[in-house]
Amino acid sequence: MKIILFGCEGQVGKEMRHLFQYSPDFYPINRQKVDLNLEQKIRECIGEIKPDIVINAAAYTAVDKAESEPELALQINGIAPKIMAEETEKIRAKFIHISTDYVFDGRANKPYLETDKTNPLGVYGKTKLQGEENIRAISSNFVIIRTAWVYGKYGKSNFVKTMLKLGQERETIRVVMDQTGCPTLAENIAKVIKKIIETRGKDSQQEIYHLTDLGVCSWYDFAVNIIKNAHQKGYDLRVKEVLPILTEEYPTPAKRPAYSVLNTSKIRREYDLTLPYWLESLERYFYSL
Ligand SMILES: NC(=O)c1ccc[n+]([C@@H]2O[C@H](COP(=O)([O-])OP(=O)(O)OC[C@H]3O[C@@H](n4cnc5c(N)ncnc54)[C@H](OP(=O)(O)O)[C@@H]3O)[C@@H](O)[C@H]2O)c1
């Protein structure tokens, strides 16, 4: 099975690369090989390698910056997946793409199902939704995995890394407590994608799945537990208190959904998955450092 992976140096991408490192027909593609701004390069890459499966773990993920760079965000999150869908369709390959909880507006009061109405609040969410819609319009064989609050060892930044940095610099950290979601370890997403490939290969599918770790928390709960784990791990921290604040006390360029918990029943049922509780994953993450 020949597999191309775009975005092989991001949080999820590097975990995937690690999992597939011994597969001879695995082609990890980074920005130097193919800049996703360059449509022709995407076409050439897929056309030359002729894979059975294309995985897209690349994205423009800077949620706030996207508000001032909407065209670039659209190109990477909306147009590049469209080109990938067109090229995979031409060679009858499968396309596995990652999307986000930010396609929802967060006004729900129970975990979002795959079939629930989307209504993104910001540029990032809108461009990611555009990517999903383009794929659905073009591809006869795709899997879109919506995930949320991703953190892991790799990639440039994430909430855990930010909290650890702030914890080393400040005595008090203020974190929003009125946004609810579920943190998800990047490694867990990579493992599930591998399982989907092992289970279904390049069988024809047209599916959207929600995939996060299990449970629910606020960014505040997440931060408290990051600091707790860091203390246990022996980090030298200055922080003495983590204080809960409201979103309105921490204005950001992009609006975020207040509630973006995803219902993961469908993927758990179809692939017989036992997903980890988010606190267990966080402990495992610190244990692995
Ligand atoms: N992070 C989250 O909290 C979160 C939440 C929900 C969903 N997701 C989704 O999950 C997926 C994986 O996210 P992640 O956190 O692993 O992302 P990430 O760590 O930010 O990695 C994104 C990757 O995309 C690559 N990329 C960006 N622009 C590119 C371009 N013009 N050409 C080529 N490559 C480009 C980056 O390359 P460089 O390394 O060269 O910059 C990077 O390796 C994405 O689809 C994202 O939307 C993420």
Helical proportion?
25-40%
Biggest beta sheet summary: 6 strands, parallel
CATH-scheme architecture: 3-Layer(aba) Sandwich
Lateral arrangement of strands in the main beta sheet: 2-1-3-4-5-10
Count of strand segments: 12
Give the distance, in angstroms, between the N- and C-terminal Cα atoms: 32 Å
What does this protein look like?
By secondary structure, the protein is α/β, with parallel strands linked by helices. It has one domain: NAD(P)-binding Rossmann-like Domain (Rossmann fold). It has 9 helices and 12 strands. Strands 2-1-3-4-5-10 form a 6-stranded parallel sheet, with helices on both faces. The chain has a two-stranded parallel ribbon with strand order 6-9. A two-stranded parallel ribbon has the order 7-12. The longest helix is centred in the first third of the chain and has 21 residues. It is globular. It starts with a strand and ends with a helix. The site of NADP nicotinamide-adenine-dinucleotide phosphate (NAP) has 26 residues, from helix 1 and strand 4.
Topology readout:
Blueprint: E1 3-6, H1 11-19, E2 26-29, H2 39-49, E3 53-56, H3 70-90, E4 94-100, H4 123-138, E5 142-147, E6 150-151, H5 159-169, E7 172-176, E8 180-181, E9 184-185, H6 186-200, E10 206-210, E11 217-218, H7 219-232, E12 241-245, H8 265-271, H9 278-288
Parallel strand pairs: 1-2, 1-3, 3-4, 4-5, 5-10, 6-9, 7-12
Antiparallel strand pairs: 8-11
The protein binds NADP nicotinamide-adenine-dinucleotide phosphate.
